[in-house]
Amino acid sequence: MKFRSNFLVRGHHLFFVVVALVFAVLVLWAWENPFLTASQSVQAWYRNSYAGSTKSFVLPNTIRENAEKTYSNSSIKEKIVQDDANSEVTPTDSASSIVLERSKSNQNSSTNSSVLPNTTKENSEKTYSNSSTKEGTVKDDANSEVKLTDSASTITFNRSKSNQNACSYGNGGWVLDNSRPLYSGFGCKRWLSAMWSCRLTQRTDFSYEKYRWVPKDCELPAFERSAFLKRMQDKTIAFIGDSLGRQQFQSLMCMVTGGEESPEVQDVGKEYGLVKAKGAIRPDGWAYRFPNTNTTILYYWSSSLSDLLPLNTSDPATDVAMHLDRPPAFLRKFLHLFDVLVLNTGHHWNRGKMRQNRWVMYTDGVRSELGNLKEIGIAKNFTVHSIVKWLDSQLPSHPQLKVFFRTISPRHFRNGEWNTGGSCDNTTPLSGGSRVEQNGSSDPVVENAVRGTQVKMLDITALSYLRDEAHKSNYTIKVASSGSDCLHWCLPGIPDTWNEILTAQI
Questions:
Q1: Do residues 402 and 341 make contact, with C-beta atoms less than 8 angstroms apart?
Q2: Average model confidence (pLDDT) for the chain?
Q3: Which of 144, 167, 428, 431 could bridge across to 159 with cysteines, CB 3.0–4.6 Å?
Q4: Which residue has the higher pLDDT, 250 or 19?
């Protein structure tokens, strides 16, 4: 019996020894096996690559890096054009038209694409030399794929949604609304320039007044002037920009007054130094106050959003220092009084305006002679980023202030320019489509500048482009016409929608 017990004990020991040997052999075999070694390497590579890619998505673009990426195609020849109203001058490239069809995943038909005009240096961060661009793929500065096709100069954008707000007022569609317009083009004479009141011209078709913008995923409440004034009680709304900013200002004044005379509204321009200088055609801006709610609405002319200082104040023909990295003195002086600020720029950034105004670009207090800032498009991009950065730094000290940068208003010249037979004589609303569905803005300069800041984007470019029939065109008060104005809008009209979206975003 003892012998049998010893045999069992030794048998167990032998079994454990054999198992240990087999396990050791398997470990050695696995260590030397190339397939398993490769598998371990792949796993290690995946872990390392994933960690690295996570970091790469958060690398921001600096202001100068963004500026240097802009308008890098120097082969495009620039033409100087001018409208017939306020001598707006806009550079154009040789492409006849560029159509953007962004992310069609939610579209139901081809009419749901946004259509943009002849891309200009101030409209885009990329310029293409002609309308027969061969098919290819490039990358824009938002790391989005761009597909070029030569059939209709089509550019397909598929931007990332990571930087979008939850509510994109720029996506949606135009719908017929017989309750429009919001005010009368005949009655709003105190606030509305006669040249933009198309009801006073020879135009006979006003169907463009009857459309309302409906955002896809957002509520856009109907504008109600008494409710608006109550919301804006004891507040000041300031528009600073070019003549398109002036149109938006006039539009809001007509909306708030219902297009009526409203004699109780006070002219308070003197409080802001907005008085007509001797020999000037008009003052640098206007300011009006609604005494019942102490609401002030003002406009200041600053077509470049940069500080302009004459180099020799005693010489009327002196050059003017255009400080690209310094906000206008008016903005610096009165910023603390504003509750809502709306900026815009774009159509004055060209060689024609530079020569006409004797603007000389300065940065850091020194004339900018060398480097990329000598290129006008890049200088504009730099200025937009600079003023946004400055405002973002000021907002913590002005917690009541909300700042909006409005994207560029599109032009619609066809078959030439203002002085070469160009026109926008279409009177059929929405002939190019009624809907916009896209990821990102059609104005990448403004979109990139406000990204990561407290400055909000008022995105109106794509939705406005669908309304080529709503321009002032060649309709004038007098019989004779010097050409077509395909830059400014009839009022009532498209700028009313800009203000409805602004009101919703405030």
A1: yes
A2: 76
A3: 144
A4: 250
